[in-house]
Design brief:
heterotrimer, A alpha/beta (about 525), B mainly alpha (about 375), C mainly alpha (about 325), A: alpha/beta, Rossmann fold, 2 domains, six-stranded mixed beta sheet, 20 strands, about 35% helix, B: mainly alpha, ABC transporter involved in vitamin B12 uptake, BtuC, 15 helices, disordered C terminus
């Protein structure tokens, strides 16, 4: 990739957007805590942060989806109130959403004009639009066949339609939410070229992303958000991926869980050249190979969205790899269902406990049997012995410090940490041979984090194997015996927890240790 | 089913249904006044007609029996996240099964006939629900549309059979011959007589007991079996169901078959218990009302039982009302039923959240460890 | 030639039978393309038929009857909208409720106002929409083939019939060539996309449902004051559901909807014509078999045996902004 041209930001550039002390709550969740930000016109500004850091919420407020609980928005120096997307559009703000807002069975042109049809009769409006769109296509290199249905377009081209939509509505400020999530590297490069062109024409672009590579490649300045706060705003030219990565993952309470050194046993799970391409055709896993041993915690580090989720689902039997093999106890378990894998001692604590790991509207005790309800201890002849279920749940809840230890309480009424402990109780209590766990402490309070970490180490000390995926680098370093770092569907490198944080940060940015040297 | 807020059981199964009913009555009252009738008096007549005398109560429970079956039918599919609108058709086809047993197997001893008829009803109903279920599970065909279509196909099929094959030769009526005395369900009146007790005459028959037993079995199935657990998980969170190693297609088909079987048992009450023959259109709307019964009863057997009795009371009380006030026809009750269905189903978000807010104000929040 | 003479009355009959289906089908099209499932077509048609019959009898004017029908049907449509759009209620249950409410209301009011067991008074010729002879129909009658088609099939229908068929290209044009139609389709396929483009999903859906109400008004009017001369209890007799089947069968598109309704009308006409008449080689076809064909065809389509029928993506799902 050629070295990206970077504009020196003139200090007298007027400020296109200013956010002052934006506060937003969703119930008890503090999504934005007093965020203040200034973005200069004619620049590409990146907002980087982990999932849940608050960046999407912030931009949704700017686009009129939500109203901030407190704070002000100024566009070009004047205070404005944005109550709906229509008002945002009128102010010249356009948004390219992460999940495309396109009507699948409309043509490209119809999608572009939706909402700005230019009159009651479509043909007239469409004819005018066609001309305008052709000009835009030419000017910015956003070539897309106007008469094709969206459903017939590959994802990369669909995104161009999203951009054209915003440009057609004369957006001067363009917000892009995780734009390269569904793009191949080549398509991403093309997108960056388009963004640079737009910037050079004086438009202001905001890029929301969690990918360091993007930020370094195309932004002029970058803000880092963490846990609802704006942590830093920097000139991209004067920072490094390592520094940004460190700011993103932050300095949480240093949890140096005491871990004795143990000799790892034989290999219990092996992945060989595992590949997975998802339904939209994007390669999520590329030739993943590694071995997991008894008595070891193998940590998978990396910024979210680089294939870790797919890795978890493939290993747990929820997804079938498109190529490669998985060996359990030396024998191929490719194509085995989640049920069979569970019976063979593979337990799975999913990343998304609310939508996958638990049924929120069920009681705690009913959640404790999810996936294991067939077990004979819960009843015979197909019956479910409620008392057994409740007793088992109570025992597990006490053992795993779930508070309050009330088996009849609905899962939705527990705090995040306790919900997670509930899931762990379910999966670990059975002494699985292998535990696959994703984001074990996401949304979990400090006290529960410590508890969860202890349990994981205990499991490993008993000679079991753990595959741990986490975006919290501290967690990975304190728990793992070995660390693999993933970026873009590949395993970039392996290291020990003792390795320098900078080395790991570089790997998270996709730069493998050999290259960095 | 959404159970985020904790309402006491009586609020769920009594208060909100009564609110729905009150709103429906209030709207009907407008029409009543417009045609020159006194709404309060009308309500009084309905209540007396339904519960006042023993005979009325018998009729009320007889109608309620139908609603219990169709309500349970909708509820079991609902727990799995499916909308079975086909109870009418499933009950209709089940009637064929019952008629077949009662017409051609009536040489067998009575208890055996009853058992076989019950099996036939359940099997035929389940079979009629199987196809839409299969199509939804394996081919993604929208269950609402297919079950509606199957209602009509059942209608055409039954009319054909009744007119051409099942009605006795020389009869002008499209109906089967009357069943012989052994091929009938015993009336409750007769059962009580055996014990020396005397209750008034009504079509209330032994299938009422079966309906109650089905309520208990329903409860056990949904909340005390592994299959029920899987059905509920599918309905509450299909993704978690896949994570929990359940098979959605298998569950969809099973749910629909159970639903069809329950709807089918309605045939026992009407055909074998009351009319003693199969006539056209004997299902006459019970299937659709079953939807309201299930929704009002929050898909729980206790709620369904109460809602079924409520609707049964409306049917019976409405008949009384139409009898005593000639200006009011049976259709007034049909209107009232439609309004109740609208309140309990279409407009449920008008009632529930407000009641929940009332309760939230009065109770401290649950001490979940937040 | 004989075959032709035998066919002509059947086709003529098919056209007449298809008209209420066509109006109701197009009504459903507007609502469902906007993402609002409408199984209350039956109820709306019924209340419209009653209103038309009642008002035409009292006022003597078919036009007032039509107006009343449209108003009645539209209010029910708005009720459906209120429950499902504003209160995000269940669209199926709301539709079922509307059918039952209409059945009860029409019968009760019929008895209260007219005391004829629910029937409205017989209308005189001036109070109905009568048959219109197209210019030159009598003159062309004897022209072979074309004359027969023109004078018997095309000419001689009431005004509402012509309106029904005109509605097809009109609907096509509205849905595919106007801003209203574009937005309507958008909120039915991807309401979030419409919302982010600045369109009010609720408003668009209400408008769609209202269009459906108006068309059902026409459907009902045709039944009671054009095809017949009064309203009779439950006169819709399932036509609303056949219209729904036709809508699905036509994959929610206007011109195929016309074809589907004509097909189902034709099946009905043949059925009536053939009753009791044996067909060579097959014997007497049961009436009910033919009656079931539209429904069986629709199921076959849904099952994917004759192509795929994909409903509007957002159909049946109340729109709630994702948080």
């Amino acid at each position: 990739m050629a070295s990206p041209e970077r504009r020196r930001i003139p200090s007298d550039s007027p400020t296109a957007i200013e956010l002052r002390n934006i506060v937003k709550h969703f119930g008890s969740v503090h999504a934005n805590r007093g965020v203040s930000l200034q973005i200069k016109r004619g620049t590409i500004h990146g907002i980087i942060g982990e999932n849940g850091a608050g960046k999407s919420t912030l931009m949704s407020i700017l686009y009129g989806f939500y109203r901030a609980d407190a704070g002000e928005i100024l566009i070009n120096g004047s205070a404005v109130v944005i109550r709906s997307p229509a008002e945002a559009i009128a102010l010249g703000i356009g948004m390219v959403h992460q999940h495309f807002m396109l009507v699948e069975n409309f043509t490209v042109l119809e999608n572009i004009v939706l909402g700005a049809e230019g009159g009651h009769i479509l043909n007239r409006g469409l004819a005018e639009a066609r001309n305008a769109v052709n000009m835009l296509k030419r000017d910015y290199g956003l070539d897309v066949p106007a008469g094709t249905l969206i459903s017939d377009l590959p994802v990369g081209l669909q995104q161009r339609v999203e951009i054209l939509k915003a440009l057609y509505r004369r957006a001067e400020i363009l917000i892009l939410d995780e734009p390269t999530g569904v793009l191949t590297p080549k398509e991403a490069d093309h997108l960056f070229a388009v963004l640079r062109k737009l910037r050079d024409e004086g438009k202001t672009l905001i890029l929301i992303t969690h990918k360091l590579r993007e930020v370094m490649a195309v932004t002029d300045s970058v803000s880092v958000m963490r846990k609802g706060e704006l942590v830093a705003t920097l000139d991209t030219g004067s920072t490094t991926p390592a520094e940004l990565a460190a700011l993103m993952v932050g300095r949480s309470v240093s949890l140096t869980a005491t871990k004795s050194h143990r000799k790892t046993g034989r290999c219990i799970l092996e992945l060989r050249e595992v590949c997975y391409t998802d339904a939209t055709g994007v390669e999520r896993l590329k030739n993943i190979s590694f071995a997991l041993h008894e008595g070891e915690i193998l940590g998978i580090a990396g910024v979210a969205g680089n294939g870790q989720s797919e890795l978890l689902e493939v290993v747990s039997g929820m997804l079938r790899p498109t190529a490669g093999d998985i060996l359990l106890h030396g024998k191929s378990c490719l194509g085995m269902s989640a049920k069979s894998l569970r019976k063979r001692g593979v337990a799975h604590v999913p990343e998304d406990r609310q939508h996958m790991g638990l049924v929120m509207s069920f009681e705690a005790c009913e959640n404790v049997i999810l996936g294991y309800h067939d077990n004979a201890i819960y009843g015979s002849f197909g019956l479910l012995n409620r008392q057994m279920v409740i007793d088992d749940a109570r025992r597990k809840m006490h053992a795993y410090d779930v508070r309050p230890p009330l088996p009849l309480l609905y899962a939705s009424l527990f705090s995040g940490g306790n919900q997670q402990k509930l899931v762990l109780a379910r999966e670990i209590d059975r002494h699985p041979d292998i535990l696959i766990v994703g984001q074990p402490t996401r949304g979990v309070d400090i006290g529960a984090i410590e508890f969860i970490h202890q349990r994981l180490i205990e499991l490993r000390d008993r000679g079991k194997a753990i595959l741990l995926v986490s975006v919290e680098l501290d967690e990975i370093r304190s728990l793992s015996d070995r660390i693999l770092t993933m970026c873009n569907g590949l395993v970039v490198g392996e290291c020990t927890p003792a390795a320098a944080e900078s080395a790991i940060s570089l790997m998270m940015a996709g730069i493998s240790p050999d290259k960095a040297a | 089913m959404n159970r985020y807020a904790d309402l006491p059981w009586w609020a769920d199964y009594l208060l909100i249904p009564l609110l729905n009913l009150a709103a429906a009555i209030a709207l009907s009252a407008i029409l009543l006044i417009a045609i020159g009738e006194d709404p309060l008096q009308a309500v009084q007549i309905i209540a007396e007609g339904a519960f006042g005398q023993a005979e009325g109560l018998g009729y009320t429970l007889f109608y309620a029996t139908n609603f219990i079956f169709t309500g349970l039918a909708f509820a079991v599919a609902y727990h799995a996240g499916l909308f079975n609108i086909g109870a009418e058709g499933q009950a209709y086809v089940a009637g064929l099964g019952v008629a077949f047993v009662c017409l051609y197997l009536d040489f067998l001893p009575r208890p055996l006939i009853i058992i076989l008829a019950a099996i036939a009803a359940g099997t035929c109903g389940a079979a009629w629900a199987f196809i839409p279920g299969y199509l939804q599970a394996k081919r993604g065909s929208h269950i609402v549309i297919t079950t509606i279509m199957f209602n009509f196909i059942a209608g055409a099929l039954i009319v054909y059979l009744l007119v051409n094959h099942l009605s006795p030769a020389g009869s002008m009526q499209p109906e089967t011959r009357t069943f012989s005395p052994t091929a009938r369900l015993p009336l409750l009146h007769d059962i009580f007589e055996l014990f020396g007790l005397s209750i008034s005459h009504s079509p209330l028959n032994a299938s009422f007991f079966w309906a109650l037993i089905c309520c208990v079995l329903f409860y056990i199935l949904i909340w005390r079996t592994k299959l029920g657990y899987e059905l509920r998980t599918l309905g509450a969170n299909p993704l978690a169901a896949v994570y929990g190693a359940m098979s959605p297609p298998r569950l969809i088909i099973i749910a629909m078959m159970l639903s069809g079987a329950l709807a089918g048992f309605m045939a026992l009450n009407e055909i074998m218990g009351s009319q003693h023959r199969m006539i056209l259109d004997y299902t006459s709307g019970y299937g659709f009302v079953g939807i309201a019964v299930a929704l009002m009863g929050r898909a729980h057997p206790v709620g369904i039982l109460l809602a079924a009795v409520l609707f049964g009371a409306l049917y019976q009380g409405g008949a009384e009302l139409a009898f005593e006030r000639p200006a009011i026809t049976r259709d007034m009750i049909v209107l009232l039923q439609g309004l109740v269905i609208m309140m309990a189903g279409g407009l449920e978000h008008l009632f529930r959240p407000n009641v929940e807010k009332l309760f939230a104000m009065r109770r401290p929040s649950i001490a979940g460890a937040r | 030639m004989e075959m032709f003479h035998a066919l002509v009355p059947v086709v003529d009959s098919a056209v007449r039978l298809a008209v209420p289906l066509l109006f109701a089908c197009l009504a459903g099209l507007y609502a469902e393309r906007a993402g609002v499932f409408d199984i209350g077509l039956e109820g709306k048609m019924l209340i419209a038929a009653f209103a038309a019959g009642a008002v035409a009898a009292v006022s003597g004017s078919p036009w007032l009857g039509l107006l009343a029908a449209v108003l009645a049907s539209s209010s029910f449509a708005l009720l459906h909208g209120f429950a499902t759009i504003t209160h995000r209620g269940n669209q199926i249950v709301s539709g079922v409720a509307i059918n039952i409410i209409a059945a009860g209301l029409t019968a009760q009011l019929g008895v209260t106002w007219f005391q004829r067991g629910g029937q409205t008074p017989q209308l005189s010729a001036q109070s109905r929409f009568l048959e219109i002879e197209l210019p030159g129909a009598a003159f062309l009658r004897d022209v072979p083939v074309l004359g027969g088609i023109y004078s018997s099939i095309l000419s001689g229908h009431s005004l509402l019939v012509y309106i029904a068929f005109l509605m097809v290209p009109l609907t096509w044009w509205v849905i595919y060539r106007t801003r209203f139609g574009l937005r309507l389709r958008a909120v039915g396929e991807n309401p979030a996309a419409a919302d982010t483009a600045g369109i009010s999903v609720a408003y668009q859906r209400y408008m769609a449902v209202l269009c459906g109400g108006v068309l059902c008004g026409f459907a009902g009017s045709y039944l009671s004051i054009a095809q017949s001369s009064s309203f009779i209890r439950d006169m819709t007799a399932g036509k609303g559901f056949i219209a729904l089947a036709a809508l699905v069968f036509a994959k929610w598109r206007p011109v195929p909807a016309m074809a589907a309704c004509l097909l189902f009308g034709l099946l009905d006409a043949i059925n009536i014509r053939l009753q009791g008449t044996p067909i060579r080689g097959i014997g007497i076809l049961p009436v009910q078999l033919m009656q079931a064909v539209p429904y069986v065809l629709t199921v076959a389509l849904l099952a994917g045996f004759i192509g795929r029928a994909v409903p509007p993506k957002a159909g049946g799902i109340p729109y709630v902004k994702e948080h």
